[in-house]
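thought: fold this chain, then report.
action: predict
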Amino acid sequence: MYQANGLPSWLSFNAQTHTFQGTPTQTVRLITIGITVNDLLLTSASTTLHLAVVTPTTDVDNSPLSPAKYELLQNYPNPFNPTTTIEFSLRTQGFVTLKIFDILGREIITLLREERSAGNHIVQWNGSRLPSGVYFCAITCNNLTQIKTMMLLK
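observation:
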């Protein structure tokens, strides 16, 4: 026979099917439950069970086409040799300019200069013709600009 001890009020244990059932009434991170098993000879064995309970958040929009904000993410890999991936998110549609600059502020290349829809976007850049060093990736859209530092190592 199975027994479960230390259950919160919202959680029940079915000894016949050996299952737990319940819905958390608040955010719970970790539950510790004692379980005891008695056999026909009344010999018992006990163990402790640690359960992580995660309650879902209901106010999050998981739509990939509607990011929460305008953002230039850090390129990856970083440092890179010779290619890297640059990702950015647009909350609304807009005209995007994506440029790479060297450490002295000189424009190296314009990767994008076009209208882009709201959503997540990925651009690959190959810096094989450039020397090792620190470079800057700058994105401008709807009069907002963000810059990230990148390192090319050969």
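thought: worth noting. The radius of gyration is 27 Å.
final: tokens above.
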